[in-house]
Design brief:
Belongs to the methyltransferase superfamily. It contains 19 helices and 21 strands. Helices cover 32% and strands 15% of the residues. It has a seven-stranded mixed beta sheet with strand order 9-8-7-10-11-13-12. The chain has a seven-stranded mixed beta sheet with strand order 16-15-14-17-18-20-19, sandwiched between helices. A three-stranded antiparallel beta sheet has the order 4-6-5.
């Protein structure tokens, strides 16, 4: 494997000793290692190797000589090991004992002096600045002792993870279409997500041999490196479907700047047409009409979302898993929200009433099959008063057409839409726009036996997690049935009213406090990352120094999103990012609240692979996730979780974890085996928690020789 240039480094703590003391410790460590090797040679063959604990920085000083049967690992964390017993008493063993007791004496003296100093400070009047300074020195001492433990462990402290074979470079676990075909699954079920014990990936996914760090936003929206995704030049040039006829190949880059989209005209004309069909002057007025969140089914390569993003519209792309020429992978590479999802047999992983507009163009979905169940699922996730935009070769076919089969399809879709009480707003060329009713009075007024029934209580699941498709109208029982014209427009929507919060069972004071805390946290995060990310960013002539980091982070994954406060704080700080807000299935479900704020997100079980391609996020954030997964006693280890984070994270991307001190210190040990650069950061306002800030290196796979 090829390791890229050295990572950026900054003063983020970590407690490393410096100067002659550090050199002394390293020399001492080398001698201990040599003595240990000699000692092992003279020991009995049955003796176990020496192993020290990462959980407790003082364990290597206080461990006894009882034998350990095996190294233990619980929940992915390295558990304390002990010295093996031996009856041999030679000079090497005495050397180790002398060193051990010398270090014990140093620690005892240091703690004694610290205690006396503390007493003198606390009884000497009000000297809070001195106490804070002393506290920092005391915390530095603990950090230094931790690093002494790491030095004592040497290369054996954590087993290095193995690299995955090249076929995993672009593979998404749980989506194995060839295996599903072998099981006899057809009619779209071969694209279903199926996670089993064999879907776990206990290795590090390497970047392709010619992988390059993506362009910064917004340049990266229009130009991507062809070697960063799995698509060949021939596939670019021969993209036959209208959803993919939008790329220009320029040597080693793909350009979308002059892309055509779902229709023969360009994307600007197409989106302008949609707005006019709704009754608006142009697409810039969609926000005023109550549209914020858009679901794009079979999004091509995300060009509609790329065009709408500057208009304050957030578009989520969904498409089936594709082993090559993937719509989702390329959309994410462009910095656009996307996720692998199929609703051939399961409901989409979104709550009911989640999107203001749903768009479908030349997507290959057989809307006229299975008694219209796919249109019923669209109705479930569409908000009252929301719009369904459909562009298809079967749409708006005149009765005089000779192709009776296509005419039959168009008549069926039109009939189902009527049974769902959708209002047909406009038809132009191959594009049709319907609107979902804002009120529920249409449903009981339908003729008896016409169209799908209203879902019964047990079948109307507000937040399904890969629940089977239901052939009934869902969401009508939800307290979140609020027409889009009655909701606050963006960006006011991000701050929910007390009435809206009451629907979600959240107190206004708790919500306000959460927002304040996250604004402070984001400022702290950026002050930590700025020296690392922004150190080489040049000042533009005539411009003021931009606030660092400048557009170095675009795709953000929040693994435990709570109320979506991290997302909100990033937008308040005017970061050009979008956030995939993930609500773990093991915690409290706040996903409906997050989506009602105008953000995007999904439910997910973190013991399974996330439905996204490798190397798709610039930053992964998790607050309290380790505690949540540990308390729930999940069926997977923390090491499994870190493998998944590594798979999703782009090379030179960042990880920020906030959790209890013990879990953060244990997680820090795991990151060494993942080859991440990691720093533990103290939180001044909280003694019980710490931050773990990590950066993933760029390691490319070797090009295969033909």
């Amino acid at each position: 494997q090829e390791m890229a240039r050295p990572l950026h480094r900054g003063v983020l703590g970590g407690g490393r000793l410096s100067g002659n003391i550090q050199d002394y410790l390293e020399d001492t460590q080398m001698k201990i290692k040599t003595d240990k090797q000699d000692f092992d040679k003279n020991s009995k063959p049955s003796s176990d190797p020496v192993s020290l604990s990462l959980r407790n920085p003082f364990q290597f000083l206080l461990s006894d000589n009882t034998p350990s049967k095996q190294d233990s690992v619980e929940n992915g964390f390295v558990a304390p090991d002990q010295y093996t017993s031996s009856n041999s008493r030679n000079r090497h063993f005495l050397t180790l004992l002398i060193l051990k007791f010398s270090l014990i004496l140093i620690v005892i003296l240091g703690l004694t002096v610290s205690l006396l100093w503390t007493i003198s400070l606390t009884t000497g009047g009000s000297k809070s600045p001195m106490i804070r300074g002393y506290r920092r020195l005391q915390e530095q001492l603990v950090s230094d002792l931790w690093d002494i433990g790491e030095l004592s462990l040497g290369a054996n402290k954590v087993k290095d993870s193995e690299f995955c074979s090249p076929e995993f470079e672009n593979f998404v676990p749980c989506f194995n279409t060839s295996e599903n075909h072998e099981l006899g699954l057809t009619e779209g079920k071969e694209f279903d997500r199926r996670c089993g014990p064999m879907s776990k990936q206990n290795c590090l996914v390497l970047a392709p041999p010619k992988y390059k760090i993506p362009h910064r936003w917004p340049t990266g929206r229009d130009v991507i490196w062809i070697d960063n995704v799995k698509i060949t030049a021939q596939e670019v040039l021969s993209s036959g479907s209208l959803t993919k006829r939008m790329m220009m190949l320029d040597e080693d880059q793909i350009s979308f700047s002059f892309a055509s989209s779902m229709v023969d005209d360009n994307i600007e004309d197409y989106s302008h047409q949609i707005a006019e069909m709704i009754g608006l002057r142009n697409e810039s007025y969609l926000v005023q009409a109550g549209v914020r969140a858009v679901l794009d089914i079979g999004c091509g390569y995300g060009s509609l979302g790329a065009h709408l993003f500057p208009k304050q519209l957030l578009t989520m792309c969904i498409a089936n898993y594709e082993s090559s020429d993937s719509q989702v992978q390329i959309a994410l590479e462009r910095g656009l929200p996307a996720i692998v999802a199929s609703f051939a047999s399961k409901q989409l992983p979104f709550p009911s009433l989640s999107f203001d507009m749903i768009h479908s163009a030349w997507d290959g979905v057989q809307w006229d099959k299975k008694d219209g169940i796919y249109l019923i699922e669209v109705d479930r996730v569409l908000r009252p008063g929301g719009y369904f935009v459909w562009t298809s070769p079967f749409a708006n076919i005149p009765d005089s057409v000779r192709d009776k089969e296509n005419l039959k399809r168009w008549d069926f879709v039109r009939s189902i839409a009527k049974d769902l009480c959708w209002d047909l707003l406009s038809q132009q060329d191959k594009t049709v726009v319907w609107r979902k009713p804002s009120k529920k009075d249409c449903y009981p007024s339908r003729k008896h036996g016409s169209g799908p029934l209203i879902c019964k209580e047990g079948h109307d699941v507000e937040s399904p997690y890969y629940h089977p498709l239901e052939a009934c109208i869902g969401g009508t029982r939800s307290r979140r049935w609020i027409p889009i014209e009655e909701r606050a427009t963006w960006p006011s929507r991000a701050t929910l009213s007390s009435k809206e919060l009451a629907v979600h069972g959240v107190l206004p004071d708790d919500f306000a406090e959460d927002n304040i805390n996250w604004k402070s946290a984001v400022r702290d995060y950026w002050s930590l990352l700025s020296p690392l990310i922004f150190s080489d960013h040049p000042k533009r002539p005539g411009d003021e120094d931009p606030i660092p980091p400048y557009n170095m982070v675009r795709n953000v994954l929040d693994m435990n999103a709570h109320f979506g406060g991290f997302n909100s704080a990033l937008l308040d700080a005017r970061k050009s990012v979008w956030v995939m807000n993930v609500v773990p299935t093991s915690g409290v479900n706040h996903l409906p609240l997050i989506l009602d704020r105008g953000f995007v997100g999904v439910l997910h079980d973190w013991c399974e692979a996330f439905p996204s391609y490798p190397r798709t996020y610039d930053m992964v954030h998790a607050d309290g996730l380790l505690s949540l997964e540990t308390v729930k006693q999940s069926r997977c280890s923390t090491l499994d979780l870190f493998y998944e984070i590594d798979r999703l994270l782009r090379p030179e991307g960042w990880v920020i974890l906030r959790d209890t001190t013990s879990l953060i210190e244990s997680a820090r040990a795991i990151t060494a085996g993942l080859k991440w650069e990691a720093r533990v950061i103290e939180i001044e306002s909280n003694n019980d928690e710490k931050l773990l800030v990590c950066q993933k290196p760029l390691i490319r796979s070797q090009a295969s020789s033909l």
